UniProtKB/TrEMBL annotation:
The chain crosses the membrane at residues 20-49, 61-82, 109-135, 147-163, 169-187, 316-335, 355-379, 391-411, 417-443, 464-488. This is Tripartite tricarboxylate transporter permease. The keyword Membrane applies. The keyword tRNA processing does not apply. InterPro entries: DUF112_TM. Keywords: Membrane, Transmembrane, Transmembrane helix. Residues 20-438 form the DUF112 domain. It comes from Sinorhizobium terangae.
Length: 505
């Protein structure tokens, strides 16, 4: 019953005119960003971090969450009409959605994606509201040992989940952890890795790093690709509305996608891509029209899109209750919380319940806004695909620079922006994921603080980390998360080599 009360209070906060405006700006920006290929919600939130520095924390975070939800919605438009997923989580939607568009059924494909996203987002947000308090109660028993073990698990799973190589993910994380050591030691007050530069005494600004790695690095990477010719946009033919048969074939995949996507998004090693692939596989197995899969089956759009949006709500469970990001956008949102001196976790529910429940309730309102924006304005979103890339990315570069100057008017900070932007470009070229760098910079100081507290309490005895059952289990899970993908990849490589050897014989 208390959850209902908190949710009602949150709705009162979210329904304030300024917060409604922030939510509308967020979902509109998010949808526009999701439609544009190559520009994800993480990049947009990163760009807005310095701009929102002096704004109301609650309103800014509501806007960031709206961008996240809107980006998940908008990605389906690009996948269906352009066969170019804006986000990795929209890859599966392109398989059947683009075939439907080519067959003149782009309208129903976009409609089932939008309505499925609405249904999944609504159910998953309510699940977030009811599950979060229980996780908070569990997290309140955590001490320094348990928090350190939890962050080790976050480091390993984030490194494994992003990119194709665990080693590259860990390398990116190591870069982030190294950057986190720059500045004044929190416990001793000694300077570390500042090389006598006064500007480095306060450490590396998370907003500068995030904007540089996601926005500047991405812009340089796209510019280096050159002009590859315009992509062909499939026109939306006929009515956008779904027929009775489309409704009958879509509602079960929407529910199944929600059930699959939410828990996977909430897991530390989750991510929307896994849920969408599992949903697609489930629909392919359960369909009464197997001959349509691969030729434009509406279930192949409805299920994965529902799983995609349910996982977005699921991602907010570990972020809000434990302070652990499981996606790139969640990592940038964590930086947004810290920008206002807030640390997501169980204590935030106790110290600032208005903000947390206002944020959760705003997601319900954002879902309704997105449905209204997506169905009638599909023609407008399609026109966004015609913006020339040079204009688009030049605008991003300008906005990133002006935002950084506005937040921290310093020549040194602009130099850092350029340096980290070049680093982001190099990492993209060589296939190193960027999100672990940001996660390492954000969570590195917290992990170090908890470890040193645990060691201080035990007078330097490292075995104290394993005497707590919760910490021991978390560390074992972290070890398995690191080792199992390596074994599976090695086994896959072995099978490929065996097949090559057999074919040569």
């Amino acid at each position: 019953m208390a959850t209902f009360d908190f949710l009602l209070q949150g709705l009162l906060v979210a329904a304030q005119p300024m917060n409604l405006l922030y939510a509308l700006i967020g979902v509109t920006l998010g949808t526009a960003v999701g439609v544009l290929p190559g520009i994800g919600p993480a990049l947009t939130v990163a760009l807005l971090l310095p701009v929102t520095y002096r704004l109301d924390p609650g309103g800014s975070l509501i806007m960031f969450a709206g961008i996240y939800y809107g980006g998940m919605y908008g990605g389906s438009t690009t996948s269906i009409l352009l066969n170019t997923p804006g986000e990795s989580s929209s890859i599966v939607t392109a398989l059947e959605g683009n075939k439907m568009a080519r067959a003149g059924r782009g309208g129903p494909a976009l409609a089932t994606a939008a309505i499925g996203s609405f249904v999944a987002g609504l159910i998953a947000t309510l699940a977030l509201a009811f599950i979060a308090p229980y996780i908070v109660k569990l997290a309140l028993v955590f001490g320094p040992r348990e928090y350190f073990a939890l962050m080790v698990l976050a480091f390993v799973t984030v490194s494994s989940a992003f990119g194709d190589s665990t080693l590259r993910g860990l390398t990116s994380l190591f870069v982030g952890l190294t950057l986190a050591c720059i500045g004044i030691d929190q416990l001793t007050g000694q300077t570390r890795l500042s090389f006598g530069v006064p500007d480095l005494l306060d450490g590396i600004e998370v907003t500068t790093l995030a904007v540089a790695m996601f926005a500047i690095g991405e812009t340089l990477y796209i510019a280096a690709q050159g002009d590859r010719g315009p992509d062909k946009v499939e026109a939306v033919k006929g009515s956008v509305w779904m027929s009775a048969m489309d409704w009958a074939r879509s509602w079960k995949p929407w529910l199944r996608g929600t059930v699959i996507g939410f828990p996977i998004g909430a897991m530390p090693a989750g991510g929307a891509e896994i849920g969408t692939f599992l949903s697609y596989a489930a629909e392919k197995r359960l369909t009464k029209h197997p001959e349509e899969f691969g030729n434009g089956a509406i279930e192949g759009v409805a299920g994965p899109e529902a799983a995609n949006n349910a996982s977005a709500a699921g991602t907010l469970v570990p972020l809000l209750t434990l302070g652990l990001p499981t996606t790139a956008t969640a990592a940038i949102m964590l930086a947004g919380f810290q920008q206002y001196g807030l640390q997501p976790g169980p204590l935030l529910f106790a110290t600032n319940p208005q903000l947390v429940w206002g944020l959760i309730a705003s997601l319900l309102i954002a879902n309704f806004m997105l449905l209204v924006l997506n169905l009638p304005l599909i023609g407008l979103w399609v026109k966004l695909l015609t913006i020339p890339k040079p204009w688009l990315y030049a605008g991003i570069l300008l906005f990133a620079t002006l935002g950084t100057i506005g937040a921290n008017p310093s020549v040194f900070e602009l130099g850092m922006l350029l340096a980290f932007g070049l680093l982001g470009y190099v990492m993209r070229v060589f296939g190193y994921p960027i999100a672990p760098v940001v996660v390492g910079l954000i969570l590195g100081p917290l992990a170090e603080q908890q470890l040193r507290r645990a060691l201080s309490i035990s007078q330097g005895d490292f075995t104290v980390l394993f005497t707590s059952p919760i910490a021991a289990v978390l560390l074992v899970i972290a070890a398995l998360a690191l080792i199992v993908p390596l074994i599976l990849r090695a086994r896959g490589r072995g099978q490929v080599l065996a097949q090559l050897a057999a074919s040569e014989d």
